[in-house]
Amino acid sequence: MSTTNAESSSSTHTSFSAEDFFATQPAPPQLGEFGRKAQEFVAKHVQDGRRVVLVTSGGTTVPLEKNVVRFLDNFSAGTRGATSAEYFLAQGYAVIFMHRQHSLQPYTRHYSHTTNPFLDLLQEDPQPSSPARISVEEDQSFHLLPVLRAYHSARSKGTLLQLPFTTVTEYLFMLREMAIAMKPLGRQGMYYLAAAVSDFFIPSTRTSEHKIQSGKGSLLIEMDQVPKVLKPMVERWAPEGFVVSFKLETDEKLLIPKARQALQRYGHQCVIGNELNHRKFEVVFVERKFSKSDLAPVPNGPANDSSTDEFTEAWIRLSEEDKKMNKSRTLAGSARRPSHVFEPHGSRPWRGKFFEKEIEEDIVEQLLKRHDQWIAGGEAHKSNDR
Ligand code: PAZ
């Protein structure tokens, strides 16, 4: 553990390396069971020749007490992760969905929001019967059916493994465990790190055992920096994996410099930048230019508009029409959705005018191209070595 002086304050605080963190913080009790489940899941899909992506999703908490009454949290609902997981599944990937407990989940996310409550889909059959029968409102089946089919398909193929975390400590232990379980996948494994992970935590030695009592004036909390685990992940836990991290900022000017800095520091393949208020309709892919001509063009944007010799940047943006449709759906809920149009589209079961266009569809499509290239690059290395 090293001791550093924070630039912004005169107080001295500790900063944990990843090794110190894992050696000193308590591992979650369910870690062994989750690790075993992940290993079995990976072994099955390696055997079936299927690629596997780890999707992390939702925010992490920082408990203020061990018997936790109060905790710090963040805004993330898990929309990015849950939505992307569905598109990865539709593209034939198996998905380890490592999510904040009770955040949005693939498939059920369509009905867990208050603007589209699940109970509004259902009706009791007017004919008396015992037991009473419940059915789905006719005009709602259009929407439900593709979701239900995709959900059943993932269940019957066993392509979705859902594992929950709550605290930032649980998240970090689980991330390491998942990466180690995914090692046998080599380049067939992808890491899609969309969770909003706290940058600060309170080490267990300084966390109050019981509820912090009031009545002693203001509460001062000193938090330590969470170790940057992308480096050991890229270097040791998943050296062959295709690693995509996300960078959220509220000042859009910082997005690209911060993303470049992350690529330089951690040496992974791709950072997807997003600004808080625009994250549902625009993101920027920032990548190192190992071979610019290999990178697939990104749709709907002034691609590579601020690229340098070392990095490329490419924006994905939803069209104005798609944005408008999403807004009307968000504001009016299910009532305004056009009920007459349903166009199954290729392997993507709910792409069509009936559903709003989701930016995750384009993100996943772009990543598939890059993952293909990453796998092909590995094959080329192997044949050069022979
Ligand atoms: O979960 P959500 O859809 O509300 O938000 C997604 C997001 C903004 C958390 C994600 O896209 C992201 O940027 N995650 C990384 C955040 C960060 O550590 O900078």
UniProtKB/TrEMBL annotation:
The keyword Flavoprotein does not apply. InterPro entries: CoaB-like_sf (IPR035929), DNA/pantothenate-metab_flavo_C (IPR007085). Residues 182-279 form the DNA/pantothenate metabolism flavoprotein C-terminal domain. One of its GO terms (biological process) is coenzyme A biosynthetic process. It comes from the Eukaryota. The keyword Glycoprotein does not apply. Residues 326-345 are annotated as: Disordered. Keywords: Ligase. SUPFAM superfamilies: CoaB-like. GO terms for molecular function: ligase activity. PANTHER family: CORNICHON-RELATED. Belongs to the PPC synthetase family. This is Phosphopantothenate-cysteine ligase. It comes from Tilletiaria anomala (strain ATCC 24038 / CBS 436.72 / UBC 951).
